[in-house]
Design brief:
Blueprint (H helix, E strand, L loop, with lengths): L2 H10 L1 H6 L4 E3 L2 E3 L5 H28 L4 H13 L4 H8 L3 H13 L3 E5 L7 E5 L1 H22 L4 H19 L1
Antiparallel strand pairs: 1-2, 3-4
Length: 176
């Protein structure tokens, strides 16, 4: 049984699973079940949609070959947030310094990340995405966009416009 099948089955039981569950902590954040059933239903549907994106990402990763989830997380973080030192990267991803260092080593060896002394301190090493790393991420994004595009084609133009508006607001709320 694949991971996504297990997750999907668990997600189908989401309301039942949350019914008698108290607060839980994930990656340093406390999560509590919603008292409002409509909010809980919204969260469930968003989670279902995110599983489609996760599946598209995993399929694209498999097609690219040797790109594990930890490597993708590191590559995405450095690409999205710009050059940073190893400590900042580890903190951002809630990884140990040694685990982050091992992943960076592998990505550096693969030519997807590079290391260079920081301009303000020769002792500090800055990690940045190489063109090859950006190319890999673009291929992943293109594969996801294609899969999402197939789903969006089935929606009316007005629904797509509404969806984009709501997703922008959701992204802004999540990032704040």
């Amino acid at each position: 049984m694949s991971f996504l099948v297990v997750v999907g089955r668990a997600m189908n039981r989401w309301p039942v699973m949350w019914k008698n569950v108290g607060p839980a902590t994930f990656s340093g954040r406390t999560v509590t079940p919603f008292e409002d059933a409509a909010m809980d239903d919204s969260a469930w549907h968003i989670e279902e949609a995110s599983l489609v994106l996760v599946e598209a990402t995993l399929d694209a990763m498999a097609a690219l070959g040797d790109l594990s989830v930890p490597r993708l997380r590191v590559l995405l973080a450095v690409d999205r947030h710009g050059p940073m030192n190893l400590r900042s990267l580890a903190e951002r991803l809630d990884m140990s310094l040694s685990a982050a260092g091992r992943v960076v080593d592998r990505l550096d060896t693969a030519g997807l990340l590079s290391r260079a002394p920081a301009a303000h301190s020769r002792r500090e090493i800055r990690i940045s995405t190489t063109q090859a790393g950006r190319d890999v991420l673009e291929r992943l994004r293109a594969a996801r966009r294609q899969r999402i595009g197939h789903a969006l084609e089935k929606l009316a133009p007005a629904d797509r416009t509404t969806l984009v508006h709501v997703l922008r607001r959701l992204t802004e709320a999540a990032d704040s």
